Amino acid sequence: MHSWKSPGPDTGRLRLAAAFGPAAVLLAIVTTVQPVMAESCVPTVAAFPPGHWVARGITVRSEISDDRSTTVVAGSGGFDLTVDATGAASGTFSLAGVGYSQSWIEGDDSSSAAGYIKTGEMSGTGTVVRIDGEMEVQIEGVIDVEPNQDGDQSNQSGQDLFGFGNTFTRPFFTQFSPSAAACNSVFGSLGGPVEYGTESDGSESYFMAFRAGAKATEVDVQGQLAELIEDAQFVLNMDVLDTDVLASFVLDMLQFESLLASLESCDPGDELELGAAWAMLQSVMFNTIRTFLDAADGGAYSTRDVITTIGIWLQGGSLGWRGADCLEINDANTGAMDLLVRFEDVLLERYIDARDANATAEMQQIAVAAYQYGLARVTAAVEGN
Predict the structure, then answer these.
(1) Residue 311 is part of which domain span?
(2) Which tens digit of pLDDT belongs to each residue from 356-375?
(3) Residue 2 resides in a domain
């Protein structure tokens, strides 16, 4: 946004005046097409079953008004998503729209408009879908540098309105979870978990995805469980726990959990009678995470690796969470809660050490994790309480 250029000598005042219009429309675009969790975060257990899924006509709309201007942004998009027989997700996402900002100040004819296109690659699992991509924005408008004159050519350049324009791209990341699923249709919102049947006020990014093609039938649940148990033993037997290997194992576990959740609504058959074997695998997961945190407490692994690895496990629903900011914790899961406290212990100690060493970048990493995962003691340290 620093490349705006306009003719005329009043460049300092022009840049100040330009702050409201372009900044407002850009803010609205970013917040509209960057889904965030709903204020009422409804706990959900739903997943895309294996197969090819198509969602079209997803609409987003945002309106921001204050005593200076009104900014409106709207768009429409969709996605194509494939979930394989292991529960892994892949696909493409796109959304395009326009934004407009108009001054309400009497005599001020400033305005700005923008068009945007957002495209991304989808990954993750049938339960938590991640989108990584780029947003392209074209923005233009006019700034009224003499709003009180209302057309009088009173400045040195002989004009009131100065035009500006800019084109840029920026990366984006978001993730979402389905809220309700049947075998051939899945409902949800890009803005976070939502109850099916909730009335729309026009601003929610609800989607309804439908299965394209035949239902996937080749799902070997028992075979995948056996492979996971074998992989878990390999991870636990490592002398030094490799974060890449652990992260890969955790992702495999989350894909399998996603598969089980999806099969509950799509011909589960007899294969979901996992009983003690599934409980054992959960225990192995807890032991693996505990071993990792013990090593981290002793100084192993970078802070980024610690946050990334544990974050993958937490965001996968280990505490009942769905998505990045849906902190609906299942307090009955004492094993997972104990590990969350252990994670907080490690980050708190590292934050104090980083603060003493004036390691700003590491302090920022830990602060973000503290707010994201609701780590109260670390948050208190960050805020100096």
Answers:
(1) 221-382
(2) 999 999 999 999 888 877 88
(3) no
